[in-house]
What does this fold into?
Amino acid sequence: MADRHPLFKPLVFVGGIVFGFGLGFSHMARPEVVLNFLTFEDFGLLFVMFGAAIVSGIAFAVMPRIRDTAPLSGNRYERRLKSFDRNVLVGGAIFGVGWGLSGICPGAAYASLGTGNVTILWALAGMFVGAYAQGYVRSRASAGVTAASAD
It folds into this structure.
């Protein structure tokens, strides 16, 4: 991997500010808005997601034609495809259940803190515990596979 540009971290921070401001401005950092979307009562979130997908899609289509490498990280533009397997299906289902129960996705949860929603800390704590538990289980499973293959 190439050395990162000195402005990499500050620009990622600025990107986070823009992302958080956009979520707050569009009211998508409010769990009740997300829950209304999930219960088919308000489709505003759909328009926000489509807007983001259009901007991202254009950037991902145009940038590799202009440059060989990403300007800040120096990484080559290439597709990284994740195969559709059992882990993707089960992980997506678990993520969806967590999203529905908490009413907020991870990015919006952080932005929700900025709007004064401190009770979202429970959902964030749950995300960290869940991510840690998944990492622990996966590391134990891979240690078991490594030990079995060494025998």
Summary: The chain has a mean pLDDT of 83. The chain has one domain: 8-150.
